[in-house]
Hints:
This protein is of the alpha/beta class. It has 6 helices and 13 strands.
Amino acid sequence: MIDADGQKRDAAHTAVGRFVGSGATIGLGSGTTSAFVVRRIGELLEGGDLTGVRGIPTSEGTAALAREVGVPTVSLAEARPTLTLDGADEIGPGLAAVKGLGGALLREKIVAAASTTGLVLVADASKTVDALGTRAPVPVEVDPYGWQATLEALSSLGCQPRLRMDAADPQQPFVTDGGHYIADCAFDAIDDPAALEAAIRAIPGALESGLFVGLALAAVVAGEDGVRVLEA
């Protein structure tokens, strides 16, 4: 039996082998699955199987890992990614996804949207769902100013928003790399992710949601029966 980490590793290796070529500039996602992607690219660069690959990290943690394993990095001021490889917290119909439980959703969406080809989701099989919202809350990155009013407005959309607290200091809010807060919004099954994404964006103070709709061109999903590549 392959455990969840093994599935993430298999999905990451398959995604890198299929979608990353020499000379590419790749958006590098954040989280445990994306770490397997970054490490695999580093291994292939070190072994000479890939050359000239650069990464655009979506978090400070990913940037540090890229430096550790020898993946050169650039910023969006210097280049645009050919595509982005990133994990997901849920993958639903049409490859709509929920992302951001790790807290990097705004930067992840900026990089994914800037990719000339699009986003490739990389995940273990537990992340696939029949409807978004059934497995994970929808994270929303919010401005610290007036966050109470922002959460109240979010609740009007039919969710139960909760300010995320810092794991190391539960008395303090979690703060993203960009200096923002995260509201984890528990919805029931989401029938229309695109409409909900637009409604969240219309709320002043809600900077970005973890709903990624219309961005993914494929998903590489690994389970006990092997790796599947799903296309939009």
